[in-house]
Structures are given as structure tokens and as C-alpha cells.
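Board notes (copied after class):
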Amino acid sequence: MNFNSELLTLLKSVSEGYESRIALLSKGEGLTTLEGKILSFLRYNEGLDSPSDIVRLLSLSKGDVSMAVKSLEEKGYLSKTKDPLDQRKSHLRLLGKADPLLKKIDAMRKDYFASLFKDFSPEEIALFKTLIERMSQNVHANE
């Protein structure tokens, strides 16, 4: 396998590991994996609270996100309000019913990232972050 393919495979593996943990927690709460991903996204991405943010940043279909948001609203996990300045845009807000699941997601994330960076020094973690940031900048510079 060449370096490019190997890098993409490794990044996908890390992402899938996180997603499988979200799937387990979601299932335990009677939610779909997508519903859990949306709740997790809203928890950790302050200011990115619109369905379009979720579609764009998680590379999901608009229809799938719309159905999951509607389901989460009906189940009492979040509310949706129209943007007063742009009626085409809506904002999502987590509700108290989501708190028990969010606490489990917090604990899972802490454990997951601790396992990812097991035996890494603080300097190595800082270097990794710097390298990923540079890669992201390079991607956006070429758009």
C-alpha cells in the first residue's frame, strides 16, 4: 500500500473507531447512530449549531440529517429555532433530556482519546496537533 492510501486508511480507522462507540451508546438509549452523532457534534462544536453545519462537516446527506433532527426533536433531545436574521437557516439546541447520554459520550471520548494517545508524550501530542493543523491549512489553501 502506498503512503497516501495508508494515511487515508488510518484516518478512516480512527474515525470508525469513534463512530462505533457512538453507535453503542446511541443504541443503549434507543437512538440511531446518526442521532448520536448529531448530539455529539452539537456537544463539541459550539457555534456550529445548524443542520447545514452538520451536513457539511460530517459529510452527511441533507435528507438524513433532516430526518434525524426531526426524530431528536420528537424524542425531546433537542429543539430547533429559525434564525431571526435568515429564516432559511435554523439553529439546534440540546435539551436536558440529552444530558445522560452526553455524560456517557463525555466519558467515552475521554477514554477513546486516552487510548489513542496512550504512550504519547505531551510533546508528541502537541506535534501531532500541529501537523494535522498544517495538513488542514494545506487542504484549504488549495480550494
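Comment from the instructor: Residues 131 and 137 are 10 Å apart (CA to CA). The longest helix spans residues 3-28.
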